[in-house]
Design a protein that fits this description.
The complex is a heterodimer of chains A (about 290) and B (about 300).
Chain A (H helix, E strand, L loop, with lengths): L3 H30 L11 H8 L2 H32 L5 H8 L1 H4 L2 H11 L6 H7 L14 H29 L3 H9 L4 H30 L2 H6 L11 H11 L3 H28 L6
Helix pairs in contact in A: 1-13, 2-13, 3-8, 3-10, 8-10, 10-13, 12-13
Chain B lengths: L9 H13 L13 H26 L3 H4 L14 H9 L2 H32 L5 H13 L6 H11 L5 H7 L1 H17 L3 H9 L4 H12 L1 H17 L2 H6 L8 H10 L5 H21 L1 H14 L1
The chains are: A mainly alpha (about 290), B mainly alpha (about 300).
Amino acid sequence: MSRQSTGYWFILPALVVLAMLIAYPVAYTGLLSVTDSQSNFVGVKNFATVLRSRATPQAFWNTLYWVGGSIVFQVLLGTATAILLNQSFPGRSVVRSIALIPWVIPSIVAATTFAWMFHTEFGIINYMMTAPGLIEQPIGWLTNRDTVMPVLIAINVWKLFPFVAVMVLAGLQSIPKELYEAARVDGANFWEEVRHIMLPQVRPVLVAVTLLLVIWGLNSITIIYAITRGGPANSTLITPIQIFRIAFENVQFNQAAALSVMFFAVAILIVFFYIKALAAAPGEAR
Amino acid sequence: MTTNAHVLPPKQAAAAENTLASAKPAGRSDRTGLGTPFIVIGCVLLVAICLFPFWWMSLSSIKTLRELYTVPPIWWPAAPTWGNYHKVLFESNIPRYFLNSVIISVGATGLALCLAVFASYGFARFNFKGKPLFQAFVLVGQLLPTAAIIVPLFVTLRVLGLVNTYFGLILVYMIITLPLSVWMLTSYFKAIPVELDEAAIIDGASRVGVLFRITLPLSKPGIVAVVVYSFVTTWNEFIFALCFASDSSVKTLPIGLAEFSTEFNTDWGAVMAASVIMTLPIALLFLSMQRLFVGGLTAGATKG
């Protein structure tokens, strides 16, 4: 109904802004990673420097631990919540609104509040565990190398499981009721319905949600940065925080760019293999 | 709150919203359910887990210093005090950071909306060469690991003299807000019958006139969803603000709060008061728009 070129004029401003903010920086990162601070070409020297640093492999494994650990529990807890909220009971809409609260609260607020709750001496959590004798001594949750990462993961899970719940709930509510009726005829109980109807039916939702959680997990530094800044002794250092440190604390932009390139490549590989594995997975043809 | 969303055509959004809101899918009565004890225990646990930190934060914000640092903790302060709020509001930089956050969030939301309205109309109403490619490019921003581009963005902003300025941060926030705004609005615009546009054009309206007098008034829910999403995301954004706004004249609330709590001697009462102050606007906005927002968000899930 109209000339082709008119469409370009409508999308042009947004595209220019995005190209400037996305395409250009991505290309520029590549350039920075193979030059020194005087813009001389240095080949893979920056990559070698970054890879030699002891922090790099540690940050890599920490990142995997952080993303993987978070996702497993976010999905489990979120799905369980969705199944619960899919039941009909009085007050359901109130419970559903309350369940969204962790997701609404800014990450930084969640981080500070939990940091206070996990406080070694005056934190409510140590009190709740020492009072009934669950633990002998107050635990330094955020200063002990063995507990700090699980605690941070727990906070991240608390923050994002409502998102999984909302998405899975929508999926559950779109399941045709004929499936339940057929299952009832066959004498299925509730747990069999969960296993044979609900979970298979929401699988596509879970696949999409998990992908988003992977990307957000790779992006998220707020909780870790606000609580531990990567410490103690780098035990919670994840790659995004390492990039930030190299760039803005050591002011080594070229090394930070080299690390960014590797981070970018790994992120793309993970997403690629995830999508590929799911495309090949059985059950999709259902 | 980090959000992303699959926002899809309003028709499905409405359907999902209905099932969610009215909560009475047909055929509920004739099916096996979870036993009542399970439901009660599950709900109590869920509500406790979700609300307790929030409640503890509010409670800690009205305790005196002495009551904060006692073992066992005090469940209800004997003498609730506004002292922490007074400290935050009158003796810290938090009000300034609050103002900065408002300016930057409003600016980023407005700019994203302006750009997205035109781009979405272009995507929804025109066919041109390379359209799928452009649409894919817009979405890539949503999937980008942001940490990987902070270095070049910083260098670029420094060259343009935009580090530590409102406009610099507003511009950078387009990476987060613009792709999703374009995506959401495109699906809303597509759902509006194209015949309305055609009729108006026959009557002599220009393309831009059609957009502003017909398309926009008909997509108010979509615009509200975009505004809420953009505002909440930019209000909570951390990493870009940390890198590009280090001067206290432009620092945003999340950064201010992080500094507050990691200084050597943390004043937990004040930190909790500042947390409450930061949460309130966003919680009110989100809960008042919840139905609309969650409706749009979950439509994607039902589609699978």
